[in-house]
């Protein structure tokens, strides 16, 4: 079973959840990241996600290992989609099972924040009047010149 | 030889997905400088580097056959 995947087709959320089912678990949390229409008032038509796939899979697996070390008894599965995604489409599904519920919430939150730090996946936003690669993990800054400006990275 | 990969806006700026480059013996910092000059890529110091699919520091020395990927700030999730 592949616990960490990059998918070109729509993600079946239940199949990701099923991977973390375990008798020791008292909780499963599922994070579903979806494509939002409005960002700071600007209307997105669609997104294109791109991954450095072999490394992205490795880094997703690394996040899984970090979680299993930090929250004993946890089990993690993550699938991130690439390609063209429309508004409301599912971009990422993270499922975490743990013996107790508090850990399942915390560990799942940790996973999405780490994805935004270390997994080589990029999104390009397409608007009515143009398109840009989104350049930082907080989704707040695009680089009109195609490059980060001074001060963008510390956020 | 070494394969050098570009992604996202770097690929758009460079105009290619990858290039063959003789980088063995050079540090990541050396390669960054050479590549950014050759392809006119600016603010390259904000880009992370991976050697064989693992993040590498600027002082790491590249070996023959290594695959180098330049990783702009990521925006997955």
UniProtKB/TrEMBL annotation, chain A:
Subunit comment: Heterotetramer of 2 MoaD subunits and 2 MoaE subunits. Also stable as homodimer. The enzyme changes between these two forms during catalysis.
A GO term for molecular function: molybdopterin synthase activity
Annotated function: Converts molybdopterin precursor Z into molybdopterin. This requires the incorporation of two sulfur atoms into precursor Z to generate a dithiolene group. The sulfur is provided by MoaD.
Gene3D superfamilies in UniProt: Molybdopterin biosynthesis MoaE subunit
Source organism (scientific name): Pseudoneobacillus rhizosphaerae
SUPFAM superfamilies tied to this protein: Molybdopterin synthase subunit MoaE
UniProt-listed CDD domains: MoaE
PANTHER family: MOLYBDOPTERIN SYNTHASE RELATED
InterPro entries per UniProt: MoaE_sf, Mopterin_biosynth_MoaE
This protein's name: Molybdopterin synthase catalytic subunit
Source organism phylogeny: Bacteria, Bacillati, Bacillota, Bacilli, Bacillales
Alphabetically ordered keywords of this record: Molybdenum cofactor biosynthesis, Transferase
Pathway assigned in UniProt: Cofactor biosynthesis; molybdopterin biosynthesis
Signal sequence bounds: none
Gene name of the record: moaE
UniProtKB/TrEMBL annotation, chain B:
A Gene Ontology cellular-component term: molybdopterin adenylyltransferase complex
Family matches, as InterPro entries: Beta-grasp_dom_sf (IPR012675), MOCS2A (IPR044672), Mopterin_synth/thiamin_S_b (IPR016155), ThiS/MoaD-like (IPR003749)
Keywords: Molybdenum cofactor biosynthesis, Nucleotide-binding
GO BP term (any one): Mo-molybdopterin cofactor biosynthetic process
Source organism superkingdom: Bacteria
Gene Ontology MF terms: nucleotide binding
Family as reported in the entry's similarity comment: Belongs to the MoaD family.
Subunit architecture: Heterotetramer of 2 MoaD subunits and 2 MoaE subunits. Forms a stable heterotetrameric complex of 2 MoaD and 2 MoeB during adenylation of MoaD by MoeB. During catalysis MoaD shuttles between the two heterotetrameric complexes.
Role played: Involved in sulfur transfer in the conversion of molybdopterin precursor Z to molybdopterin.
Protein name: Molybdopterin synthase sulfur carrier subunit
Organism, scientific name: Pseudoneobacillus rhizosphaerae
The gene coding this protein: moaD
């Amino acid at each position: 079973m592949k616990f960490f995947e990059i998918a070109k087709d729509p993600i079946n959320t239940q199949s990701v959840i099923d991977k973390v089912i375990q008798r020791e678990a008292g909780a499963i949390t599922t994070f579903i990241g979806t494509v939002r229409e409005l960002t700071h008032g600007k209307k997105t038509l669609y997104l294109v996600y791109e991954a450095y796939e072999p490394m992205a899979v490795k880094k997703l697996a690394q996040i899984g290992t970090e979680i299993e070390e930090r929250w004993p008894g946890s089990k993690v599965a993550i699938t991130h989609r690439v390609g063209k995604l429309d508004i409301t489409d599912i971009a990422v599904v993270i499922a975490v099972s743990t013996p107790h519920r508090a850990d399942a919430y915390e560990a799942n939150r940790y996973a999405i924040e780490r994805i935004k730090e270390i997994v080589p996946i990029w999104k390009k936003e397409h608007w009515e009047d143009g398109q840009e690669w989104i350049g930082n993990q907080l989704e707040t800054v695009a680089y009109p010149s195609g490059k980060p400006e001074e001060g963008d990275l510390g956020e | 030889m070494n394969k050098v990969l570009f992604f996202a806006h770097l690929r758009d700026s460079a105009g290619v997905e990858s290039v063959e480059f003789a980088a063995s013996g050079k540090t990541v910092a050396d390669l960054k400088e050479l590549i950014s000059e050759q392809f006119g890529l600016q603010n390259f110091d904000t880009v992370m580097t991976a050697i064989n699919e693992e993040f590498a520091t600027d002082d790491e020395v590249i070996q023959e056959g290594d695959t180098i990927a330049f990783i702009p700030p990521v925006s997955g999730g």
